[in-house]
């Protein structure tokens, strides 16, 4: 966030400098307000660029085995350009390299989900998926595992059979 702030300030300074050079080349014929407007436009442009490139930059830096399962695009009337080109504000990723199975319960998979948000810290949660039953249970509060590997007191949530998280975890 701090790096983006510094980049935005430098973009404003650069655009104001370009406007100043153009003004000098044109014999100082441009109005005096052109430099602050150019600085503001450069800063707004840099902010918009950071919003739209955040997802790609973050996705490129994911470790091997972490696969993006879902993403949430956002539109806002406060940012009218997002009505035409929505940007990705958050996404969920699955650590397929850390997905665990139990031979006693072959249709269940235990994996870690990671939740990324534009201005939020990364959150991680262990989730148990029942591939045959198309359901999942969030195990944030811990879980009681029986000796045979089954889970007691899991708060199962039904999922659609085409849920991207379920498909990704169960196909791995």
Task: Give a brief outline of the structure.
This protein is of the alpha+beta class and 172 residues long. It is built from three helices and nine strands; from the N terminus they run H-H-E-E-E-E-E-E-E-E-E-H.
How is this structure best described in words?
This protein has 172 residues and is α+β, with helices and mostly antiparallel strands. The chain folds into two domains: 2-61, no CATH class; 88-171, no CATH class. It is 34% helix and 33% strand. The chain is built from three helices and nine strands; from the N terminus they run H-H-E-E-E-E-E-E-E-E-E-H. Strand 3 (100-102) and strand 4 form a beta hairpin.
Produce the secondary structure layout.
Layout: H1 2-25, H2 34-60, E1 66-74, E2 87-95, E3 100-102, E4 105-117, E5 120-130, E6 135-138, E7 144-145, E8 151-152, E9 156-158, H3 164-171
Antiparallel strand pairs: 1-2, 2-4, 3-4, 4-5, 5-6, 6-9, 7-8
Keywords: Membrane, Transmembrane, Transmembrane helix
Transmembrane segments: 6-26
Supply database-style keywords:
single chain; 172 residues; alpha+beta; 2 domains; 7-stranded antiparallel β-sheet; two-stranded antiparallel ribbon; 3 helices; elongated
